[in-house]
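Weekly sync, protein design subgroup
Attendees: M.S., D.O., the rotation student, P.L. (late)

Item 1: inverse folding check
M.S. brought a backbone from last month's batch and wanted to see whether the design step gives back something sensible before we order anything. D.O. pointed out we never logged the input encoding, so this time it goes straight into the notes. Structure tokens as presented (432 positions):
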């Protein structure tokens, strides 16, 4: 059995935010959920240490357990908060930082494997700029003797390139004992988690460092670092999408979410945004400048350019959604076409229906939302306003410019507009 203890009690003052730091989103979900997702395949249990008054964080990590660190007395003190729920636990525990969300499952696998060969394993990196990271001090045999925080380090220690990433793994029986013995007699008067390493060494036992790339172990303390983490996650998601058989014409201009599903031979043109909850089946083309959220696009459909698919939308097989078309909670049947300047909200559109330019479903009466149904093979003339609730029958036609307030039977033609009157000569009159 293995447990992950994730520290997330800090507010993250450098973010300058009313929201706890780990709630800031990367690729459409809170950063802590990225870390939890990396942990889940490796650890049987996850416990998150939160600060007081962070109900949104507790909700975001559910169903995983949380414990509250009432006072922020350091990373070692925060890790101690997991002691009551882990009473009598005989497996391994790892401590991770919630603001380190880019760690991969593969690296965590290496960490727990290394722990099998030593009493404690930790993750370390060699950043291009070691800045203020804690430094990993190794003995002649490569074993880690201690970690020294930047604030407490000598010039010689600051010259060490190997930096602490902030993840340790050991038997909980040992780790809890080392945590209980921590002292706060340092520059910052904090209980440092990192001091457990010196305790391992003092007991004549062995601690080892597992190195991983900086891109994975970098922490997030500011919005600038948040943007860098977003770039890293986007790069990974784009790579996975392309390896999965999707073409991204200009990958760096496409924004994906953690859960975006792109089928085989999907082609995504530049500047497309996939908000969370999007599934694109095989052979779909998503043309430039489209925005999609919580929707399904079936095989062979064409979306965009400049299309907006909002939550609850399903675009059927081979259907077309063109420029400046917005769909909200709309089901577009197979082969249906809505190609220009249209809003379809709370609507069901049958297979093969054609929706003319400028069609609007008037789905909201100021108080309630109502549904529009358009039958299979119907033809909605340009600039039709469909005042919901309303139904247009199968194969029916609405004349251009109609305001349709009553149901149209199957196969009927509905004309609902003022009749044109021509007044001879009146155009020229008074022009001189
Ligand atoms: C820590 C490490 C440092 C390492 C760096 C890597 C310590 C003492 N230092 O420094 O060696 O190089 O991370 O990013 O561990 N937290 C709590 N309660 C607390 C204090 C912190 O939950 O009382 C949480 C924070 O919310 C954060 C994490 O622990 O998620 C790390 O704390 P932070 O203050 O960022 O530590 P660093 O100074 O970055
Ligand atoms: Mg930090």
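Designed sequence read out in the meeting:
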């Amino acid at each position: 059995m293995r447990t992950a203890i994730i520290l997330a009690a800090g507010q993250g003052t450098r973010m300058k935010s009313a929201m706890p730091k780990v709630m800031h989103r990367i690729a459409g979900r809170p950063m802590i959920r990225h870390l939890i997702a990396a942990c889940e395949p490796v650890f049987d249990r996850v416990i998150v240490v939160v600060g007081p008054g962070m109900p949104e964080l507790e909700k975001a990590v559910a169903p995983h357990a949380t414990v509250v660190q009432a006072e922020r007395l350091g990373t070692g003190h925060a890790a101690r908060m997991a002691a009551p729920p882990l009473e009598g636990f005989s497996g391994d525990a790892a401590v991770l930082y919630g603001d380190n969300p880019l760690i991969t499952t593969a690296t965590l696998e290496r960490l727990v494997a290394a722990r099998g060969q030593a009493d404690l394993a930790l993750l370390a990196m060699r950043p291009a700029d070691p800045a203020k990271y804690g430094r990993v001090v190794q003995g002649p045999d490569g074993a880690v003797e201690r970690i020294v925080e930047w604030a407490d380090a000598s010039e010689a220690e600051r010259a060490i390139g190997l930096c602490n990433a902030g993840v340790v793994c050991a038997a909980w029986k040992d780790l809890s004992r080392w945590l209980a013995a921590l002292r706060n007699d340092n520059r910052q008067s904090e209980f440092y988690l990192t001091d457990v390493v010196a305790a391992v060494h003092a007991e004549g036992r062995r601690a080892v460092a597992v190195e991983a790339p900086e891109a994975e172990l970098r922490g997030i303390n500011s919005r600038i670092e948040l943007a860098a983490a977003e770039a890293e996650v986007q790069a990974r998601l784009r790579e996975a999408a392309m390896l999965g058989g999707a073409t991204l014409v200009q990958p760096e201009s496409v924004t994906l979410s953690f859960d975006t599903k792109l089928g085989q031979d999907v082609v995504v043109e530049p500047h497309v945004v996939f908000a969370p909850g999007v599934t694109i089946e095989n052979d779909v083309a998503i043309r430039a400048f489209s925005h999609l959220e919580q929707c399904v696009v079936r095989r062979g459909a064409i979306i965009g350019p400049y299309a907006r698919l909002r939550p609850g939308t399903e675009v059927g097989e081979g259907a077309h959604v063109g420029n400046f078309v917005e769909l909200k909670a709309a089901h577009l049947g197979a082969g249906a076409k809505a190609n220009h300047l249209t809003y379809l909200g709370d609507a069901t559109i049958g297979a093969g229906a054609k929706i003319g330019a400028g069609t609007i479903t008037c789905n909201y009466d100021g108080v309630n939302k109502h549904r529009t149904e358009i039958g299979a093979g119907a033809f909605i003339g340009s600039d039709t306003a469909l005042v919901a609730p309303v139904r247009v029958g199968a194969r029916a036609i609405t004349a251009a410019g109609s305001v349709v307030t009553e149901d149209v039977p199957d196969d009927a033609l509905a004309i609902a507009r003022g009749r044109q009157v021509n007044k001879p000569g009146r155009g020229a009159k008074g022009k001189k």
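Discussion: The chain has two domains: 2-217, 223-414. Residues 4 and 46 are 5 Å apart (CA to CA).
Action: P.L. to compare against the previous round before Friday.
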